[in-house]
Amino acid sequence: MTESLVEKLDYEATFDCVQCGYCLPVCPTYIAFKKEKHSPRGRINLVKLAAEERISIDDMQEGIDLCLGCRACETVCPTNVRYGDILMSAVEVLKENKQMDIVEKAARTSSFKFALKNKRVLGLINRGIYAYQSSGMKKAVKMTGILGKSKKMDQMNRAMPDIILSRRITRNVNPFRRKRLSVGFFEGCIMDAFFANVNRLAVKIMQKNNIQVTNIPGQTCCGALQHHTGESEETLKLAMENIEAYEKYDFDYIVNTIGGCGATLKEYDKLFEPGTGWHERAKKFTGKVRDISQIMAMIDFDFNHEIKKNAVYQPSCHLENVQQVFEAPLDVIHQVPGLNYMEMNEKSLCCGSAGIYNILHFDESMQILDLKMENVKKSKPDLIITSNPGCHIQMKLGVEREGLADEIEVKHIVEIAAEACGVRGN
Amino acid sequence: MEHVVLKEFENIMGKRLLTEIDDRMSYGYDGSFGQYIPDCVAQVMSTEEVQRIMEIADWHEIPVCARGASTSLSGGPLPVRGGIVLDFSQWDTKLEIYPDDLIMKVSPGVRTGDIHKLAEAHNLMYPPDPSSSSICTIGGNLAENAGGPRGVKYGVTKDFVIGLEIVTADGKVLRTGGRTVKNVTGYDLTKLIVGSEGTLAVITEATLRLIPKPSDTRTAMIIFEDLYTAGKSISKILTSGVRPSKMEILDHNAINKVEDYAGLGLPREAVAIILVEVDGDPDVLVKELGIVRKALSEIGVENVQVASNKEEEARLWQVRKLVSPAVVSSGYTKISEDATVPLSRIPDMFRKIDEIKKKYNLNIVVFGHAGDGNLHPTINTDMRDPEEVDRVERAVEEIFNYAIELGGTLSGEHGIGTMKKAFLATEMGEEGVAFQQAIKRALDPKNILNPGKIFPEKGEKRLVLRND
């Protein structure tokens, strides 16, 4: 080992933690699993002890592995502990330390290194799902429960959104000629494959409101999922590609519809050494990143379609805790005519989706989802509004598991805004 | 711990007995200093479980440390001699209110903030409000006799407990006090157990006293240019006929730290500011602040700013709230003390701490509960620098000794725990310590209840912030 653990782990940051425990009541895993090692305070202490070699690296694994990375702890921390950095450092050390089990390794290699950043492959996946759904297979599977042997796959299948084919945004304007608010759109790989309609609606909404939207070539995956599982070299590469792709244009904002990806884009500067040219370039990039809800909150909407629903909003953790976007989505929601917005109890608690947490740790993820659904049921909504595809699928899964699929719709905030102003996809 | 003993505990607790190293480490710290390693952790959920564990612990002479949310700043829950940690944080199942009797019955793991909420829903109030209310458990509050800003008007935890259910060191269950405010039957065991830091018995239920909720609050900020006047003002306000519900003070260093951090437009040149809150009927509050203003003008204090609406009031309290985050700079650790002095000696204490700050070249700010003399000198330090930690230890020692010299006390609300035990005799004398130890020996002859707390070890004379 060339670098000592004190250097590899973010030992420095652990000293900011005064163990006051303010993070405990907002930590979904502490609430669900009821043990201190599943709290931010506990994890920080384990990382510190591992760095001091008072426990082994393996000893911190369970605590770290089961962290959702929602970073709700950072929002309430009175001493501004950089929890995300401590967590990432531990994830990387664990990854290095551990011979990944073969299944996980295969899943990671195929999805991260290949599919996620390869638009063509994702397009194929997208078309595959489309074919599967349009052929009536999804319905058949849903009804008969063919996948019933594996309950997990069955539930996942039910939660999958209805897909429409992803099409490129027509690039009809010269991005160098500025006349009005100009936005570079960031598609995001999963969002574009599974939720192409949301992206398309977002673009249409902005265009309808006189915003110049450009979808640029050269953009790639944001690197979030790779980063969260310790594939930091991959993330760095993707970040550089994206920065390079967007800095060619003079956009006011770089806009995306995905809370999680937006958060990663917003933290690109952390990947580079301060003082370097790349850090400067990353800073410029992150300064322009905005969530679609922030753009929509700036628009003077002419909402002319009523949506007569009782709705709750499930914020994306990374939209709130990393991007610090709390009010903008609510500003939009409050404007929708006919919509009765209800504040859900513990609304900001993670739903348990957390990137691929719900695939890697299905049972734990469901425990956390159950907590969320308890709160959903208390509000009795007929609509759940989301701001991130991961949460979206998870909330659909929650609704399915509770047998409420016929009573509660799940929709992205863009779909709601589009419906309210009469913008249609396709 | 022998395997057979673990097995016995496991028979009682099942999966709620934690023995893995990551779990044991995770119940070996609190909000103060040091990492200890218990042999196991029992996440207790009933009096019966506690009672059976105590029987086994008594038989095998195993140390037992009760723990709530581990927000303690004095080392109260630290398992310094290993043994078993009783984690009460999950036992929050009992939270019953009897509005007509103005009482509440709670299990030890209930969060103090939830007690506040339930009381308020019935237009009642449970006044003790340690700043960690949203996290800390009532069990921990009882063990440490926690205080908070409202102490000046309403008192502290012990003033609102009228009955307890406890488990003794040898595993007997008994009740102290009752459901009435007046109760002089026998010794007041309730008050003996409250604040005994888990060294005399384990608390498994409490009956709390509630009062009517004041209907409104008003807040004023008073700005001072000299320390003598600031000190005089505290007594002046408290003898004016008005009883503030909160009275908080920030020194010059604290004001400037908050200003650096948040830029709220505070007067940087002020030597101190005092925030005064009055509570009660809205019409009366205006009058009361008028009386305060008049009393202060008699000693030449004119710079009194009254919040004219709720937003302004919230902004003023934000100042106090931001002290803690403001004093912490990255990579440094915050050490909060709670030496408490008679009201008239607060300016002396301020001056002394400023002197100590310069003498030891440390980053110290002072803020705290001016109305009851409970100050929080807070030091921001690098725990990785042994030389600096040594200076901190000496500075804190000087603060303790000076507080006692002024007729004050080592701890107003944090407890003695591991942090201050070396100074116990300085405050209460050898005889005082011996009397307390006699009580401890009578109730816990095998010294299994939270051993290593409150009383100094033989020859222990110094404050030590590290255990490794």
Structure description:
- The complex is a heterodimer of chains A (426) and B (468).
- Chain A has helices at 5-8, 11-14, 28-33, 40-51, 61-65, 72-76, 83-97, 102-115, 119-134, 137-144, 151-159, 189-194, 196-208, 224-228, 232-246, 259-266, 277-288, 292-298, 317-321, 328-335, 357-360, 362-379, 389-401, 413-420, and strands at residues 182-185, 212-215, 253-256, 289-291, 310-314, 340-341, 383-386, 409-412.
- Chain A has 426 residues and is an alpha/beta fold.
- Chain A has a four-stranded parallel beta sheet with strand order 2-1-3-4, with helices on both faces.
- Chain B is of the alpha+beta class and 468 residues long.
- Chain B contains 15 helices and 18 strands.
- In chain B, helix 1 (3-13) packs antiparallel against helix 3.
- The chains are: A alpha/beta (426), B alpha+beta (468).
- Chain A binds chain B through residues 12-13, 15-16, 18-22, 24-25, 34-37, 39, 42, 45-46, 49, 54-55, 59-60, 62-63, 78-80, and chain B through 18, 21-23, 25-27, 29-31, 35, 43, 69-71, 87, 90, 111, 132, 134-136, 324-325, 328, 330-334, 382-384.
Give a short overview.
Chain A has 426 residues and is α/β, with parallel strands linked by helices. Chain A has helices at residues 5-8, 11-14, 28-33, 40-51, 61-65, 72-76, 83-97, 102-115, 119-134, 137-144, 151-159, 189-194, 196-208, 224-228, 232-246, 259-266, 277-288, 292-298, 317-321, 328-335, 357-360, 362-379, 389-401, 413-420; strands at 182-185, 212-215, 253-256, 289-291, 310-314, 340-341, 383-386, 409-412.
How many H/I helical runs of chain A? Answer: 24
Global shape of chain B: globular
Compute the number of helices of chain B. Answer: 15
End-to-end Cα distance of chain B:
22 Å
**What structural class should be given to the helix and strand makeup of chain B?**
alpha+beta
Which CATH architecture of the domain at 302-420 in chain A?
3-Layer(aba) Sandwich
Pair of chains with the largest interface and how many residues each contributes? A-B, 29 and 33 residues
Q: What kind of assembly state do the chains in view correspond to? A: heterodimer
Shape-level CATH architecture of the largest domain in chain B: 2-Layer Sandwich
> Strand fraction band of chain B?
15-25%
